[in-house]
Design goal:
234 residues, 5 helices
């Protein structure tokens, strides 16, 4: 799967470098920023939990885990991925490191419900994720949100893995981790650009359904939903 969306075209997610034709890119909309009336919820203990504590999941390609981004360590890698043409087409973050740094800072400044993470496969970074509270996000204005809906943005940064089913495998692994560690979450939500057919296909192949097409400020998106109740059936 190409760079799966979910980035600047929101809803929208190896130390090696990218390659390939469509990124598994879930290009995001600029999410993660709590709307003013929701800022008090930052004090809520279960705002998002910590993906770092979720452990690992088995995939057909190896053990996968999420690790929160540390800009001092990860900025160069992520900047390289954002400048891959296939990623940049949907995430719109190409440019110097300062561009990527500003995007990360917007999630790490304490006024966000989004956690940026690296996705590691057998210890090697291969993907970038943004895990966020969709019900507290501006995205909730565009679909009938439920409490604790969890949103994801994804890009597969290592191009050598694209088109080999990695995006599908990782999407299933991450949503299974969300359901296992966020018991109040009944749905995982994503909003890839409707034009990003490889991304949409990866979501469909990993147990999501397309609930609707929605017009967001920066794109027309496919609203993808994976239901806890159906996770063992799809």
């Amino acid at each position: 799967m190409p760079t799966t969306d979910t980035a600047r075209n929101p809803a929208g997610p190896t130390t090696t470098h990218p390659t390939t034709t469509h990124p598994t890119t879930t290009s995001p909309t600029r999410h993660g920023r709590l709307t003013p009336h929701l800022l008090p919820l930052l004090a809520e203990a279960d705002l998002l939990d910590s993906p770092a504590a979720w452990g690992s999941a088995a995939t057909p390609l190896g053990r996968f885990r999420l690790e929160p981004v540390r800009p001092g360590r990860d900025l160069e890698l992520l900047t390289g991925w954002m400048n891959d043409p296939e990623v940049a087409a949907y995430w719109e973050l190409a440019g110097p490191a300062a561009v990527t740094a500003a995007h990360l800072r917007s999630q790490l400044d304490g006024a966000s419900s989004s956690v940026p993470c690296l996705g590691l496969l057998d210890g090697t970074p291969v993907s970038y994720w943004e895990i966020y509270r969709a019900d507290l996000d501006p995205l909730s204005r565009y679909y009938p949100a439920r409490p604790h809906d969890t949103g994801i943005h994804l890009l597969v940064g290592d191009g050598t893995h694209r088109g080999r089913g990695l995006g599908t495998a990782l999407l299933r692994a991450v949503t299974d981790l969300v359901f296992a560690h966020r018991p109040r979450c009944t749905r995982v939500i994503a909003e890839p650009d409707i034009r990003n057919t490889p991304s949409v296909s990866a979501f469909l192949n990993s147990g999501f359904r397309c609930a609707a097409e929605i017009d967001l400020p920066e794109k027309r998106a496919a609203l993808m939903v994976r239901e806890r109740a159906l996770r063992h059936l799809l």
